[in-house]
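Subject line: Sequence and fold of a protein, written as structure tokens
Body of memo: The sequence and its backbone structure tokens, given next.
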Amino acid sequence: MRARKALMIAAAGVVVAGGLAVAPFSFAAQAPGDGCADVEIIGARASTERAGLGVLIGPLAQRVTRGTARTVRSTAVDYPATLGNYQNSVRQGVADMAEKIEATVASCPDTKIVLAGYSQGAQVVGDTIAGAGRRGEPAVDAAAIDQVAAIALFGDPTFTAGEPFNAANRTRNGVFSRGRGKLDAVADRTRSFCNTGDTFCQGGQNLAAHLNYNGSLNAAEQFIVGKVGG
């Protein structure tokens, strides 16, 4: 079933890529290169986006950087973000995100970590924290998860209706629904944004809804800044 759904995502890839290609690409301003930043944003871009933070997570990181007096460093997850071999792409993203989290925890124990992901990137974030599938194991240990101050998810294919951290009361599950309670450990630090009719987080028919999360950036910024301090 998961393989069939992955093929469905791949089939939409040409349209998704076309929709994302017209959006501006940007990175957040960085904290000084030496020492530890007060806040580290680790972001995973959407499927088919070119390497970096991507067209949504990049602007979010910029907003957070401007919205707090704390120093902020932004780091992009290094992974394929491909559709043709979707599950393997997600696994590579999880491995890299976990490595980056653990490196920050080891070298900067006082840094507040923010995780953000869009589309396939949102699944990468969730799988890193909760593991893949209904019996998955986290890719990082509890101490590392404790250092995560905020999580922002957009158009998450593993969206599950009824979770307390959902930004809106959507009644349908995503195409790879994670199942209730899998992110309970970080529920108070998480916001999941899912548009009505979104092809992937709602299993809907509106691909345009999946490509338009700019309207959620302000709420996401306020949530993150509230968690890391203004």
The first strand starts at residue 39 and ends at 44. The chain has one domain: 2-228.
